């Protein structure tokens, strides 16, 4: 930061301390963060739109089918080059990265996350990668919120809150749905919903929506006016739809994890690009509706124009046959998850949120068409089932039923479908939760014990850094050392009362405590006869640096009753953690998070 800017910032902070209360300043920053998140989302959407529009205007007219195969590969190649030559840093999938920053990095998000997503996500989606922009929008907004808090020297709790504000702002700007955006931030990021947190979230969401309206006008991504009201006679069909969307959510999650693990088996990024690029190009060539984000599919299905939603296919299919249309819609539902995850595996940058909505819209519409055409005289609203299908997939895949309910309710401009929204969301979420305990955003974090929840005690433990509580200034003993050596080179030179015994390969063998040798310290006859190997014994427990979470460590202290436990890293002795130091660090972190 330039010296003049730093000087001005220092003067402003001094003025702020004198004239503005901390709460008022948080309100001001929440408006600023909402505005910045709104700007970031607007730029992200426009860049993606103009890239896609450029292809539609000049290229697709003559080479449409061929370019469905070629363009996504070119986009992925450009992203690969940018990552390898310029960024040289990992770019996560937005929401997962933000959750990790909250749980393990005290909300500190690197500045490069602001521009990395702005460049790579439009190239991925604009060139036809089958991903969404909501994840990158949240990543950009979160980075803006984190770095705004750091710029003005805000504490950890406020930094976390501003990340939530920015995430809500990105969501609000993307869909023009401020209430759903607030619920999204609370539900996904497990934010404290006290009044002091709710007001900044409201201010950020409104600020982002106003910004979006200012730059984009009244245009919205999903255009729909509710015409058909909820019919109580359709309640059984909505229950069946909840069951279908629940199982499809399980399918989505299983496909996501399986394909992700498949690509992880290739260490070379170039090999991932080659395999993934060819696979995604082939899928888009055979199923063109998978191209890009998929807003066209959703909007056309909501308007009742399934022919426009399906578009041109390379096969001469009779689209006047409704069962062929139903089959194609089910095909879109199944392959959207595969195409999206393959895009990620090949190195593309994007989000899961929009593909989930696309799958839900195709599934809900196909489900309604089946009901209307099975020959029993049923007549359900295809547009309503399209919307409710989106809700079911979102509730299941993202494990966010409240966000799903309120987002669709706001999109429709009313709450006439509130009953089926709640019903389908609850059923879908319950089924998915039974088979898949965590969402695609949170599974990895949960496995590592790094998932933030509404349990404040567990969250504080999670935010502790193990390296800050490990002590390494212990005198190490070798198993062949005699009692005399131990007294001369360890006991006499250390203020500690226990000494780890390690092998030549630095493997932890056991421990000798001062109490173990106190009764023989002055018996000189034993100095050359007794060795460390004969005196050492197993410790009360062992902490595995690579596997144990802070919650696991606390439980080991509780079950063992020990005050000190050794830490093993990569199979080698690394140091000790004391219960007193761990509790002291916990208290300090609790103060940082709650004040």
Structure at a glance:
With 595 residues, the chain is mainly alpha-helical.
Which SSEs are present, and which pair or pack?
Elements: H1 3-19, H2 22-58, H3 60-87, H4 95-104, H5 112-126, H6 134-151, H7 156-175, H8 178-189, H9 195-216, H10 235-264, H11 269-286, H12 295-302, H13 306-310, H14 322-345, H15 353-373, H16 382-397, H17 401-412, H18 418-435, H19 443-447, H20 456-463, E1 470-471, H21 483-489, E2 498-502, E3 508-513, H22 514-517, H23 532-535, E4 543-544, H24 550-560, E5 564-569, E6 572-578, H25 579-594
Helix pairs in contact: 2-5, 2-6, 2-7, 2-9, 3-5, 3-11, 5-6, 6-7, 7-8, 7-9, 8-9, 8-17, 10-14, 10-16, 10-18, 11-14, 12-15, 14-15, 15-16, 16-17, 16-18, 17-18, 20-25
Explain how this protein is built:
It is found in: Membrane. Residues 470-529 form the CBS domain. Keywords: CBS domain, Chloride, Chloride channel, Ion channel, Ion transport, Membrane, Transmembrane, Transmembrane helix, Transport. This protein has 595 residues and is mainly alpha-helical. It folds into three domains: 3-216, Clc chloride channel (Orthogonal Bundle); 232-454, Orthogonal Bundle (Clc chloride channel), CATH 1.10.3080; 458-594, CBS-domain. 65% of the residues lie in helices and 5% in strands. The chain is built from 25 helices and six strands. The strands form two sheets. It has a four-stranded mixed β-sheet with strand order 1-6-5-4. A two-stranded antiparallel sheet has the order 2-3. Strand 2 and strand 3 (508-513) form a beta hairpin. Helix 2 (22-58) runs parallel beside helix 9 and helix 3 (60-87) runs antiparallel to helix 11. The two termini are 28 Å apart. The model has no long low-confidence stretch (mean pLDDT 82).
